[in-house]
Amino acid sequence: MATMDRPLTQNIRADRDFATLADYRKTGGYEGLRKAVTDLGPKAVQQWVKDAGLRGRGGAGFGTGLKWSLVPIGQAPDHPPYLVVNADEMEPGTFKDRLLLEKDPHQLIEGIAIAAYAIQAQTAYIFLRGEYRLAAERLTRALQEARAAHYVGAHLLDSDFSLDIHLHTSAGRYICGEESALLNALEGKRATPRPKPPFAVVSGLWGRPTVVNNAETICNVPHILRHGADWYKGLGRGADAGTKLFGASGRVKRPGLWELPMGTPIREILEEHAGGMKDGYQLRGFLPGGASTDFLLPEHLDVPMEFDTVAKAGSRMGTGTIIVLDDKTCPVRMVLNLERFFAQESCGWCTPCRDGLPWTVTLLQDIVEGRGRPEDLDTLSRLTRMLGPGNTFCALAPGAMEPLQSALKYFREDFERYIFQNRPLKEAV
In CA terms, which of 61, 315, 404, 415 is 20 to 30 Å from 123? Predict the structure, then answer.
């Protein structure tokens, strides 16, 4: 792909650690911000992003420009809205934002400035996963460079718009990736989800209208302003616009990340870019978008990686980072490992999640240790419904149930082998 066809990673090169301000400017850095504050009003910027068809890259796929347009601009001049960037990235199997934060921090900063201008926020926060220490160092340096060059601060680029950007390193917990729990944590409170409504765009951080966007989502914004909506839509192969950082982990020959067009088939990602399965292993299934998505099978390899298409196949595109299940890894133990994580990371705010996830872990533990009963499979199936959408305070437990419910559907014989024959799949070392 030509450089213009992979805008998110155009500044990431093997011969340098990361792109400085000078490096970023060489490829048109901050031209999008200049266009926004000089030639376009906030509503016009929102329309550009709407027209481009940018959907959130954090997993939900909500229209970015539409979310911005829900913010009531100008209704309370003394209480402007906030912009918050979710860079917590604690989803198992997901590591896409880290690459952008460490290697091209100015791309995120320019995107923040444009997004903040579009909703007329005067303060923005980057909510960063605490373990991302290198990203924090480079973002801190980039913010210093941006302030010195008047891309951030009072009257940036000699305009009437002013913006402060603060880097907040999180104390941790997976629940902080949930929008309202993140806002509570940012306010110094316990990281628990908030009731909805009101939604954050109406009453968010400290009661003000707040937009929360994923880091990769925001990194797309400068390129839309620089090259236009039609160009951005043309990058995708199907219904969804733009490019995406797709990844693969597990027993593939070349695990990693690649910027590819939206709509790239899963087969191309795994076989061409990840190099296929390691010698001696065969593909048995995969989680297409991180740990909280449903398993798909080899028969789904030709499904394009698009939000709606993957949903029709029975899963979610999620973060676009594929976790591979090979034929020598036990799917029951794999799911047990995931459920242990989700149970540990539950905030305990609602009963189904607080009590249901540990119960799920106990049942799976009994099965793999030879104490499983036939009725345990029915109980697990019932739990996937009891902890499903609409029954919990947020999406943590429903997400945790996705790999379990699909494993029971596709790999039931593995569960039954433990219970009826006590002969689990012999795993590879």
Answer: 61
